[in-house]
Design goal:
This protein has a 4-stranded antiparallel sheet with strand order 1-2-3-4, covered by helices on one side. Helices cover about 45% and strands about 10% of the residues. It is an alpha+beta fold and about 280 residues long. It has 12 helices and 4 strands, in the order ααβββαααβααααααα. Pfam families: SWIM. One of its GO terms (molecular function) is zinc ion binding. InterPro entries: Znf_SWIM. Keywords: Metal-binding, Zinc, Zinc-finger.
């Protein structure tokens, strides 16, 4: 099974739940996740609701696989805590720029720690859970499966943690843009092209060109004049890897434990060496 908790926020989330959940139940919960028994889940404000398919147990009277309803409710941070955190984050250009570009800084927890605020849940009371299964222990293995699912989702979308603690992504961006530095940065980002919007694709779409019937394709590509010989070849353009880095170290399609960016950096370096040898 692919490793869950590849990023620091995913790892910290797992560490938190390990402090107040029985290890055997965690193991069974991870097995539930690996066998695709979570039928569906959704986020409603600070609550995560899910449906989990249980197992047949004739000994307990279950002759068909039961469906359980469960939810996890996160304790939202007080409004005053968010005000203080937004004020501190909004005064730091590095954090602010990445958040406004929809990227999560690796050290985002430091401003919260400076204010003695726990962004990630640390105590059992920070998370409330309920499952309709007959297990008297809470959290049960079904809740544990949902824990692991959330940890994997946090690897790919760390902004989900802000929403679960009471501040949706859109509200976060709006409040950051109201800070003095945030307003200046948002203005700089949009002054050349107006308001930001999502593009249909990363690449420009080709446009059809009408070629007159009198043009012979072979002559068109050869050109009217012969190209001069002895022209020095231009320096190869460096590969910036913007598109590779845009998805982060662990994009959704990348199931491995090693960073996707590091793998691609090594791959590009090998391509450069091979190309140099061929030339």
């Amino acid at each position: 099974m692919s490793k869950i908790g590849k990023t620091w926020w995913g790892q910290r989330f797992i560490e938190a739940m390990e402090t107040f959940t029985d290890p055997k139940r965690l193991l069974r919960g991870r097995q539930y996740l690996s066998t695709h028994r979570i039928l569906g889940w959704r986020v409603e404000r600070n609550r995560v609701l899910a449906r989990v398919r249980g197992r047949m147990s004739p000994y307990l009277g279950f002759y068909e696989e039961p469906i359980y309803e469960l939810h996890i409710e996160f304790l939202p941070l007080p409004e005053s805590a968010w005000d203080n955190a937004i004020g501190l984050i909004g005064s730091r250009a590095g954090f602010l720029a990445r958040l406004l570009l929809n990227e999560m800084p690796d050290e985002i927890e430091k401003p919260f720690e400076a204010l003695e605020i726990d962004l990630l849940p640390r105590k059992r009371k920070d998370i409330g859970t309920h499952c309709s299964c007959p297990d008297s222990e809470n959290p049960c293995k079904h809740i544990a499966a949902l824990y692991y699912l959330l940890a994997s989702r946090l690897d790919h979308d760390p902004f989900l943690l802000f929403e679960l603690r009471g501040l949706p992504r859109d509200e976060l961006a709006r409040r950051l843009q109201k800070t003095p530095l945030g307003a200046a940065l948002a203005s700089a980002l949009t002054e050349n092209g107006g308001e930001l919007f999502s593009a249909e694709s990363y690449f420009s779409r080709p446009l059809p060109v009408t070629v007159p019937d009198t043009v012979v394709p072979r002559d068109y590509w050869r050109g009217a004049k012969k190209l001069p010989s002895g022209v020095e070849p231009p320096e190869p353009a460096p590969v910036s890897g913007i598109l590779v880095k845009k998805g982060g170290d662990f994009p959704p399609f990348w199931p491995k434990d090693v960073s996707f960016v590091e793998v691609m950096d090594a791959f590009y370096e090998q391509v450069r060496k091979k190309a140099k040898d061929w030339m």
